[in-house]
Write a structure and sequence with these properties.
Two copies of one chain form a homodimer. By secondary structure, chain A is an alpha/beta fold. Chain A is elongated and about 85 Å long. Chain A binds a DNA duplex (30 and 30 nucleotides) through helix 2 and helix 4.
DNA sequence: ACGCAAAATGACAGCGCTGTCATTTATGGC
DNA sequence: GCCATAAATGACAGCGCTGTCATTTTGCGT
């Protein structure tokens, strides 16, 4: 049964309820029903066949310009919208991509997601969100099931899933198009940030403030980002003529708590660092917590900086010096590359732009002429 | 053209590529193709008609138990999954609901979203995410377009959209099922929290710590939550025998910045509050910021508490006393009520359970406020 | 004008399911 | 055992599009 309200009267969007077999159904000829126009209606109004309308709607070639315009006119006047299921069924494409993620920070994911939605909506694709446990034993199976069950046209993978080698291999085997956000292996469609250079610039900045003992808290070992940021940290030390000191580098997990633990360890050293560069904002917030706990004032006694520019970085005291990662743009770019891959068979790996955000949590090393940073909002 | 890899060999999931017209296509009879089973295949294996298989898959009545089992067996052995588009097209239902949101906090939304996804997935519904500007002039139109374009079966509305009266009215007119998360008007399907009682309990707690001047920062005026929390604040004062003082109640916007602004105003009073209850965690974080700025130590000089128990509340110093809102559960409940409404024509308004989280930002009222800087103590 | 290739358009048969309704099979009362 | 009734099952025609391929129209060289 078609669900639609019965309305008396006529306008462009009304027509007699007539079945394909020609019989009117349960209504006298004068009662009409508001009903979505079908491609056939558009064709009739434009004086062409349904197939030609289909051509116009799908940007297929070989339609004369005046015909196209006439059809678009009819589409507008009937407020016609193609039925997604009918389209999918007939064309054997779902116009559906999935965004796979495993438990990253909500604000990061929300931003990426917004970008993906924006890009997909613009190209009339739907997005299916799929929180997943990438460490689960049935992970691969789950993804394959998802693809076949929902007839996905493609996938967008976010860290740490974008580094899941078995999955990438399987997707290539299956021929399923995919795009990665910040993957370790850049040999696929997607988007990356030059995190190594960003981390390097941050360390150089700290060194320029006079810091000589700069600590680093490494991110989660399964994220490619952790390694890039660590490499960048080393680059920065080298560029600033500072010695790498393994005692000042502690493993973290990208979580607030792991930042607290790592900072406690570092601050307990005989010669603790005067600045700590955490591989993300959550851990940096943990460092500030640990500093407070240890009776240290940030940035007076300890400079702290993070990575990502999450909302958190502006919502703690002092506000966090960090590196802005344009997550929304990155989501958009990844989606666009995926759609390109679906359409043209190949997408590119695009590089997004980072930016240093100098805020209140970093300052000149004590003992040197002080230069206040703005602590404002 | 059907997209499917050509594979040699046979197993339960393979069959000759045969068109409905009976002609084999482009392949010799020995080459076979891995291809999703169709309902017809299941029917053949189970020795019934496709329609009976359909009955089993859709939990329709009037199927003998042994027939059902035989069919389920065939479904498993063929790894059959119904084609979503074919189902939608034939049944005129999309099995798709949309989650509408407008810019709430990412962590809140992510949690709600997870709950919604979980519940919908369990009932084999898809979720479409729709960030929207509820204040835009074309808002209603956009939503209507969304419904008709995607053939949505229903909507889940989150604050502040759940309080958008014109939208609710229109949805009822259209007969579109919907469920609300924390709506002001509880006369619909959805989920709420007894925020008023929660706020009251929080204020009573503060009073029990000896606070007599307890300030409140009101949330965004368009959110029902703001009013409930304010009412609860007044209830709590009354229950504790404290006088309501309009100077201690300041309008905020639910944002961090608005919390800073409101707290500055309150702390500048001749007789400032000794405790501030902000209507959400973001504003409470702003209060802590402003307190630091004013040289006050939290909780020594000022107790601060929030509402929502966002991740932020555990990632600032001191950690925030707040009220836990089970967002994930709420998302799940809202989705389940929507699906009930879609199925049975009516859903319920369910009440979720809050919990007070007593953490480091609140303490006994001091004998006398000291004016030292909080950091480094 | 004519002929021919290329461009434009149309006819038609499904895509894989479910709604409707007809038909067959079980159940129960006597 | 027989019929009335209910339960179980099946036949069949679409749902609204697009792929394929046939047909018509156009453009253009001669």
């Amino acid at each position: 049964m078609r669900w639609l309200p019965v309305i008396a009267g006529t306008d462009a969007r009304m027509r007699p309820v007539e079945r394909a077999d020609g019989a009117f159904r349960n209504f006298t000829a004068t009662i009409q029903v508001a009903m979505r126009a079908r491609i056939e209606d558009v064709a009739r109004v434009a004086g062409v066949s349904p197939k030609t309308v289909s051509r116009v709607l799908n940007d297929e070639p070989n339609v004369r310009e005046d015909t196209r315009l006439r059809i678009l006119q009819a589409v507008r006047s009937l407020d016609y919208r193609p039925h997604p299921s009918a389209r999918s069924l007939a064309s054997n494409r779902s116009f559906l991509v999935a965004l796979l993620y495993d438990n990253p920070s909500p604000s990061y994911m929300m931003e990426v997601q917004d970008g993906v939605l924006e890009a997909c909506e613009a190209q009339r694709y739907s997005v299916m969100l799929q929180p997943l446990d990438a460490t689960g034993p049935r992970f691969l199976e789950q993804v394959e099931q998802l693809i076949s069950e929902r007839r996905l046209d493609g996938l967008i993978l976010t860290p740490p899933i974008s580094d899941h080698a078995p999955l990438l291999r399987r997707l290539r085997e299956l021929g399923t198009p995919f795009a990665c956000v910040a993957p370790r292996d850049r040999n696929c469609a997607g988007v990356v940030l030059d995190e190594r250079r960003a981390a390097c610039e941050m360390v150089v900045h700290l060194a320029s403030l006079g810091h000589q003992r700069i600590g680093h808290i490494i991110g989660h070992p399964d994220h490619g980002a952790s390694i890039w940021r660590l490499d960048g940290y080393r680059d920065g030390l080298a560029q600033s003529g500072l010695q790498y000191d393994a005692r000042l580098v502690v493993q973290g997990q990208f979580s607030f708590d792991s930042g607290v633990v790592a900072a406690r360890a570092m601050l307990a050293l005989p010669l603790p660092p005067t600045a700590i560069f955490a591989a993300n904002d959550d851990m940096a917030a943990g460092v500030i917590w640990a500093a407070n706990e240890a009776g240290l004032a940030v940035p007076r006694d300890l400079s702290v900086c993070g990575f990502d520019d999450t909302p958190l970085s502006r919502q703690i005291w002092p506000s966090l010096t960090t590196i802005h990662q344009p997550c929304r743009d990155m989501g958009r770019i990844a989606a666009n590359q995926l759609l390109r891959a679906i359409r043209d068979g190949e997408g590119a790996m695009v590089s997004a732009k980072f930016a240093l955000c100098l805020r209140g949590s970093t300052a000149r090393v004590p003992g040197r002429p002080a230069k206040e940073h703005a602590l404002g909002l």
